Amino acid sequence: MVRRMLLVIWIWGISVGGSAVPGLAAPHEVFHESTVDRDARMAWWREARFGMFIHWGLYAIPAGNWNGKTCPGPSEWLMNSADIPVAGYEELAAKFNPVSYDPRKWVATAKNAGMKYIVVTSKHHDGFSLFDTSATDWDVVSATPYARDLLAPLAKECRRAGLRFGIYYSIMDWHHPAQTHGDENYNPTRIKPGRKQEYIDFTKHQIDELLETCDPDVLWFDGEWPDWWTEPDGKELYSYCRGRKPGVIINNRIGKGRKGMEGLTKDDQAYAGDFGTPEQEIPATGLPAVDWESCMTMNDSWGYKRDDENWKSACTLVRNLIDIASKGGNYLLNVGPTAEGEIPAPSMERLQKIGRWMDLNGESIHGTEASPFEKVTWGRCTRKPGKLYLHVFDVPEDGLLRLPALATNVRGARLLAGDGLRLPVSQSRNELQIHLGAAPDVPLAELASVVVVDIDGPIQIMRTVD
Ligand code: H79
User: Fold this and answer.
1) Is the Cβ atom of 278 under 6 angstroms away from ligand 1?
2) 260 pocket-lining for ligand 1 (C-beta < 6 Å)
3) pTM for this structure?
4) What DSSP character marks residue 311?
5) Separation of 300 CA from ligand 1 center, angstroms?
6) CA 123 to chain centre
């Protein structure tokens, strides 16, 4: 006979951050930062949950096409995928004149979608700088008819609107003379012997310029995988950046810590970087004790790609955001503006729809923490002190949202959107049930409807132990 005991065994969410592995120094500890200081530094980022990634550069001109053909892969890789020599690629600069660029419009677009920060490419793998730099003439000011810095005005508009601002920077550089091999071609994975320090100095010089003109809150490195870039290089650059701006938040691609496209930081040693970077992926389970951000595209390209019409639906994007928040991460959702400076219409439409959903339900995303439950069959869950948010993707046939029984007192449940209809709650020995009934009559319920459960105190889950 199986004897069953009812036990309160789990108090959730006591701490966030710190090393995932006991006994192993977390990156911030390598930098001699206390957990309290780190939590303070990461606070805005953890609350934000949703940001806009912007991939903009010369690659928006060919927009994925070369010699009359659409090239496979994302458009920002065109130099590589179409095997364009440096001199040929350089010709694009003379055609870059984004007269429609209106940073205020981009910031309003992000803000209206419910996004709390923007991360923009300052220099992608093609090495082209979208800002005013004295380190090279391969930049928007020196090489294009537009001849003005693109990033400082965007940073300024972000601040004005109350959004945070981040800079993407590629370590791999297909144009820098330390990484190219002659004028005719380049090597995407090597650095010339004896010229590494020159390139590191160039990078630091550019980071200094960006810190000076844009004062970024996030430094988002990429292109760290070539073998010549090492973990000690990453740690040294991390220390340099934090030394220049102690409060800045830096991703794990500054060093060699990330696990491939899964993006989370390996735990065999302490690596540089403050957060993991899954790319085009969402972790399968909740990861409440580590900081991470999934970056994803709306179609299949980061840069503007004219012929890529493989758009995800607004429903998928909203559910990705919910899924990520329920697992304790951030969603960095990408747009690829055109060479004229416009965010493409399909992206605008989706951002507007996400924004309408966020206007009604943003409370269930911003400032929340990961779900205290393992999988729930009908959707996802997030939490805040005193509240659980239940995101309903599929209304159960019997109209009951089932959760494990709580030892915490449940005051009631209600729909977040619409007129806040109250929902009956009942609890059996093993199960908390919210009586949802038929599909809730709230706007955009087809994306996800949200039920708020008001609770007294920390969540304590009753567990049946056999
Ligand atoms: O900027 C966008 C892309 O252009 C860039 N990152 C996003 C944010 C990107 N560059 N490369 N990729 C995406 C895919 C590259 C994958 C690989 Fe690897 C690089 C395969 C092998 C080396 C990553 C690092 C996976 C394994 C090691």
Assistant:
1) no
2) yes
3) 0.94
4) P
5) 13
6) 18
